[in-house]
Design a protein that fits this description.
This protein has 6 helices and 6 strands. By secondary structure, the protein is of the alpha+beta class. The chain folds into 2 domains: 48 residues, Arc Repressor Mutant, subunit A (Orthogonal Bundle); 55 residues, no CATH class. α4 packs across α5. It is flat. 16% of the residues are buried.
C-alpha cells in the first residue's frame, strides 16, 4: 500500500518583525528610558501603541549594525589607550561614531575591525 499523504491547507503565519520596548532600546543605546521616549521620533522603527513606545528590532539593527549595547566614550578611550578628551575631540575620526544629542556612542561592530580584534570585551 501507498502511504497516505496529507496536505496542509493552513497557510503559514506571516513573519512579523519583533518589537523592542523603550527600556530595551535604552539599554542598547546606553541612555535612560526618559531620553528614549523624548527622542523616539528620531529613532528608526518607532511605533506608538497608545501609551507604549515600541521599536522594530530590524530597523534598530539596520541603524546600529547589530543589537549589541553601544560603547561610551570612556570605554573607547580605554580600548584605544587615549584620554577621553581625545575621543571627544576626534570622535568623527573613530569608526562607528554615533551622536545622540550631546552624547557620544560607538557601534561595537564597526569599531572592532578598526581596533584589529574579532570581538569586543564585555
Amino acid at each position: 500500500m501507498f502511504p497516505l499523504q496529507v496536505r496542509s491547507t493552513v497557510a503559514a503565519a506571516p513573519v512579523l518583525p519583533s518589537l523592542l520596548s523603550d527600556e530595551e532600546v535604552a539599554r542598547i543605546l546606553v541612555m535612560t528610558t526618559p531620553w528614549v521616549r523624548k527622542h523616539a521620533n528620531e529613532i528608526p522603527g518607532f511605533e506608538r501603541l497608545n501609551s507604549y513606545f515600541r521599536f522594530r528590532s530590524c530597523d534598530i539593527e539596520e541603524w546600529l549594525g547589530s543589537l549589541e549595547r553601544l560603547l561610551e566614550a570612556d570605554q573607547v578611550a580605554t580600548l584605544m589607550h587615549v584620554p577621553v578628551s581625545w575621543i571627544y575631540a576626534h570622535a568623527d575620526a573613530v569608526p562607528g561614531f554615533l551622536r545622540l544629542g550631546r552624547y557620544l556612542r560607538f557601534r561595537p561592530k564597526m569599531l572592532c575591525p578598526f581596533l584589529g580584534g574579532e570581538e569586543m570585551p564585555s
